[in-house]
Design a protein that fits this description.
The chain is α+β, with helices and mostly antiparallel strands. A seven-stranded mixed β-sheet has the order 21-20-19-34-35-36-32. It has a seven-stranded mixed β-sheet with strand order 22-23-24-25-27-26-33. The longest helix has 16 residues.
């Protein structure tokens, strides 16, 4: 017979279980002690807090002491700082401390242990202990997590307390002995991120050892400095430069994001554009007029007056190219270099550009003056790669107008007040040299003022709504292209015809996926294949939808009889080249060919092999390489492709058979150009029209109405034996 459990027993058991599981029954409180941070400078206050698990856990005579961490198993030696819990001083007062606990600050005004140099704490690692008993050995009731005190010699500072947006920030730092660690780094964080353990994702950072974002193993030196600014280091993927308006600190950080030292707070004054106070130099340009008779346009960009070695370029311009008084000079951007929000700095830089000894004595500004016009690019407009999110657009435009001596009646001029045009785009429709109207129509685009960000680092991405010119300027351009002229010359601070750089296209704001309008625009132009990849530097190819729109408008202008030829001129790249592009037919609008001359570098040069499938070539192979004409084969020199030992015309793509015949290709049919001229000097990658190592260069467009022809040229006057580096002529 089974033994039965009574009902009363069952109910008692249920009651016990219910009590155990009741949400009203909480875990017992525990005694704790902690500090307010994990690291401190040696003179920085330390806030200590504690509480008891219950009133029975507190005892008369309990005290708090700060000890080096390595004393965790032996508190027999004297503490660095201490006090009685009951009195919060070093004077004993009988009684049991409050179980709720309390807090105290140890600092230069806090409790000091008699006979010890307790404050400031020496550099090292410490803990705070809640201790019981008045004589050694002491009993540990509870202890805090370890914290680190850094010597005051470990410090970091900035060179001033406030900066305008985009002003460079000079940071200096030093380590006390034994403090520096492998992987320590320097970073700027917003002030509200604190100064103890910093979050991931700084605004700007470098490794203390390498001074870059590339890690090098080793302990940093005891001292270092760096400048954070335009063109400096920044953290990939962050909106790092310029720092937006706000308050910040610079920090020395261990690899675990623990701040070793922090600077004082500094402020970045966002959206502030200090006015110019320097007088505009009286040495002024002559602005062109629509009534001018013009047969030649000369142009260049990226002007660094201090880099010039003589006046040869300007002397050649004046004495050899612009000899008939029917010439205009166009600056195509980076007309001086001043990345700043400070308009006084920009005005000084513009003044210096005009007052330069070589420019003022032989350049367009000298007497008799050559009319000057143009556009801008990033380094004279704002700073590197910036567009419409530059906060001082209007103020910068005003300085541009002063530099180019824009008339007060011009819509770009600040005298227009609330009616001032937003952007520096402009045009001149010049007479032919014989005085008849409708000759060269020079259209200066502004690819900065209204331009959407190319990538997220320059402002919020706008996707397929990204614009290079903005709606108002697009409408203005369409109207300009509807004005009849013989030749339209369209200036742009950045290149137009080189195709999209195909690496990492998904980093461009305008990219909308493999089946989107970004890829479709390239496909329409016959450039969808990855072999059609252009410069990795700024270009219209970074917004292929906008580039297609521009080329279609140009194509329509020619088809409608409003232009016989359209030629783009551009700068920015620190080299020169000639490009062409056949714009595919659409509907009843036929295919048209357009050209571009890039001229950049006074005196600057960029010795790099840069891809551009649309670059003009002497003869081209089926692989897209340029024939290295003349070339040598089996001791014979060939000036053109040959069928010797091959069934179809071929050429070497290197000057001789040094590579055992490996670098060659089948020649494509000769182009429409029979008069390409190339000095084959100062070029990169064997491309006859890619001039990249000359001391300086400028471009030229000459229209001959009698011969009904146009000549595009790249001029390198410092090479007196071959001042014409490359040129090509074609029918008007």
């Amino acid at each position: 017979m089974k033994k039965l459990i009574s009902t009363a027993s069952i109910l008692s058991l249920i009651a016990v279980i219910a009590f155990i599981l009741s949400p009203e029954v909480k875990a017992a409180s525990v005694t704790s002690i902690s500090t307010d941070a994990t690291s401190y400078q040696s003179d920085e206050p330390i806030l200590i807090s504690w509480s008891y698990g219950s009133s029975s856990d507190a005892h008369d005579g309990d005290w708090i002491g700060v000890y080096p961490d390595h004393h965790i198993n032996d508190l027999s030696s004297g503490s660095e700082m201490w006090l009685w819990v009951q009195s919060l001083t070093q004077s004993y007062r009988a009684g049991v401390p409050d179980a709720a606990g309390g807090s105290v600050v140890f600092d230069k005004n806090g409790p000091v242990e008699t006979g010890r140099q307790s404050w400031p704490l020496a550099a090292g690692k410490y803990r705070v202990f809640l201790i019981r008993s008045v004589a050694a050995p002491y009993a540990i009731v509870e202890m805090s997590d370890p914290f680190t005190v850094y010597d005051s010699q470990t410090q970091i500072s900035i060179d001033q307390g406030a900066y305008f947006e985009n002003d460079p920030i000079q940071i200096s730092w030093s380590f006390a002995d034994g403090i520096a660690q492998d992987g320590d780094w320097i970073a700027i964080y917003p002030e509200n991120d604190g100064s103890t353990v910093l979050p991931r994702g700084s605004d700007l950072w470098i490794y203390a050892l390498s001074g870059t974002q590339s890690y090098s193993a080793g302990i940093p030196p005891s001292q270092g400095s760096a400048v954070f600014g335009a063109g400096g280091v920044d953290e990939s993927g962050q909106q790092s430069w310029p720092l937006p308006g706000g308050t910040y600190r610079a920090h020395i950080l261990h690899p675990n994001y623990e701040a070793v030292a922090s600077s004082s707070v500094f402020e970045v004054l966002g959206n502030v554009c200090p006015a110019a106070y320097e007088e505009v130099s009286a040495n002024m340009h002559l602005a062109p007029s629509d009534a001018d008779n013009v047969g030649r346009i000369a142009f260049s960009s990226c002007y660094k007056p201090s880099s010039q070695i003589n006046d040869k370029l300007w002397r050649y311009l004046r004495e050899d190219y612009c000899t008939d008084g029917q010439c205009v000079w166009a600056w195509l951007g980076d007309n001086m270099y001043m990345d700043s929000n400070n308009m006084d700095h920009k005005r000084n830089a513009y003044n210096a550009a005009r007052n330069d000894q070589y420019y003022s004595s032989m350049g367009p500004i000298a007497d008799p003056k050559i009319p000057v016009t143009g556009t801008w690019d990033d380094h004279d407009y704002a700073w590197n790669n910036m567009g419409k999110y530059y906060s001082c657009r209007q103020q910068s435009q005003n300085e541009f107008c002063h530099h180019f001596n824009v008339a007060e009646s011009d819509p770009r001029h600040p005298s227009q007040g609330p009616n001032q045009q937003e952007g520096i785009y402009s045009s001149n429709l010049f007479n032919r040299p014989d005085g008849n109207p409708g000759g060269i129509h020079l259209i200066n685009l502004d690819a900065r003022y209204h331009r959407s960000p190319i990538s997220a680092r320059y402002g919020p991405c706008e996707g397929t709504s990204s614009s290079m010119l903005g709606d108002t300027q697009w409408q203005w351009l369409e109207n300009e292209l509807n004005r009849p002229s013989d030749v339209k010359v369209i200036s742009s601070g950045i290149q137009v015809l080189p195709p999209t750089h195909k690496a990492n296209t998904n980093s461009f704001c305008a990219y909308d996926g493999p089946s989107g309008t970004f890829v479709q625009a390239n496909n329409i132009l016959g450039e969808g294949d990855n072999s059609f990849s252009g410069t990795s530097y700024e270009s219209w190819g970074e917004m292929p939808q906008e580039r297609l729109k521009l080329l279609r408008l140009v194509q329509k202008s020619i088809a409608d009889g409003n232009a016989l030829q359209v030629i783009f001129i551009s700068g920015d790249q620190h080299w020169a080249e000639i490009s062409f592009k056949d714009i595919p037919s659409i509907g009843d609008i036929p295919t048209v060919r357009v050209h571009e001359v890039t001229a950049s570098g006074i005196d600057q040069r960029w010795n790099q092999i840069i891809p551009n499938p649309n670059r003009l070539k002497l003869r081209e192979t089926d692989s897209g390489s340029e024939c290295a004409l003349p070339f040598t084969y089996r001791g014979v020199v060939y000036d053109d492709c040959t069928t010797v030992d091959h069934h179809t015309p071929w050429c070497y793509t290197v000057p001789d058979d040094t590579f055992g015949g490996r670098s060659w290709g089948n020649c494509l049919p000769a182009s429409m150009y029979s008069n390409i001229v190339s000095s084959k000097k100062n070029i990169c990658g064997g491309d006859a029209s890619h001039v990249c190592t000359a001391q300086a260069n400028f471009g030229g467009i000459s229209v001959d109405w009698e011969e009904q022809s146009v000549t595009l040229s790249i001029l390198t006057p410092h090479d007196e034996s071959a001042p014409v580096a490359a040129s090509v002529s074609f029918a008007l």
